[in-house]
């Protein structure tokens, strides 16, 4: 009876493994590699589409300004709307925050910190969101993450320790640039509880935290689509 029970359990395990893997090797990471390749391909395609959209938008702007049927007041109003929507280039004083992963062999740097897990040594989505939200709270007129301007439909999302922003894939170090009054932006970073949590990990394990102030910095306008993908306006 014992032997029969062992063979029955073994058969059940084999059947379960086959059902889950569908005949594929469960330990192979080919599906993960294929997924990452797909993300990179889509990211390159998104970049090409955004560049094409930017070119078309510039052509529309030139045609609009050459149209004698549009008044100067209407052109100025449209320019203000584009600036508010983040579609126009923006310059002024500001700062850049750089976040970097800790070394993979990092050890506690302070007495109160326990031994780190790999999860403690990388930048997470909430860390990027904390900095972005603090900069908005500090009165930022415009924010750029890596090489992209944030607009109302932007979402800062991470998968593992890679950032997916508006269809593009990024790896650390991550840079966040804001245009605004530097004193207000710095104060907002210092007073943000969420940023404070990240900076405790900076002290504990050596994650990167760098703030560069600029007397003048320029963030680009958003060149991609502004259509809502997963929401509808209230009618």
Automatic annotation (TrEMBL):
InterPro entries: DUF881 (IPR010273)
Pfam families, per database record: DUF881
A Gene Ontology cellular-component term: plasma membrane
Coiled coil: none
Domain of life from the UniProt record: Bacteria
Family according to the record: Belongs to the UPF0749 family.
PANTHER family: CONSERVED MEMBRANE PROTEIN-RELATED, UPF0749 PROTEIN RV1825
The protein, known as: DUF881 domain-containing protein
Species this chain originates from: Streptomyces calidiresistens
């Amino acid at each position: 009876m014992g032997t029969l029970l062992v063979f029955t359990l073994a058969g059940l395990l084999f059947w379960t493994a086959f059902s889950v893997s569908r005949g594929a090797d469960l330990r192979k990471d080919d599906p993960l590699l294929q997924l990452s390749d797909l993300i990179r391909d889509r990211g390159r395609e998104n970049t090409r589409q955004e560049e094409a959209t930017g070119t078309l938008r510039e052509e529309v702007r030139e045609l609009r300004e050459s149209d004698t049927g549009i008044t100067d007041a209407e052109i100025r109003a449209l320019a203000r709307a584009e600036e508010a929507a983040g579609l126009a280039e923006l310059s002024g004083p500001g700062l850049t925050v750089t976040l970097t992963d800790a070394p993979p062999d990092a050890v506690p740097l302070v007495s109160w910190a326990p031994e780190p897990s790999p999860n403690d040594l990388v930048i997470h989505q909430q860390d990027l969101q904390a900095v972005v939200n603090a900069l908005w709270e500090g009165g930022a007129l415009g924010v750029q993450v890596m090489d992209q301007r944030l607009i109302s439909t932007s979402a800062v999302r991470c998968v593992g320790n890679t950032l997916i922003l508006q269809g593009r894939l990024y790896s650390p170090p991550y840079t966040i640039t804001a245009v605004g009054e530097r004193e207000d932006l710095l104060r907002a970073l210092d007073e943000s509880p969420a940023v404070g949590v990240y900076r405790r990990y900076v002290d504990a394990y050596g994650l990167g935290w760098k703030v560069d102030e600029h007397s003048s910095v320029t963030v680009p306008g958003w060149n991609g689509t502004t259509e809502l993908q997963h929401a509808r306006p209230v009618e």
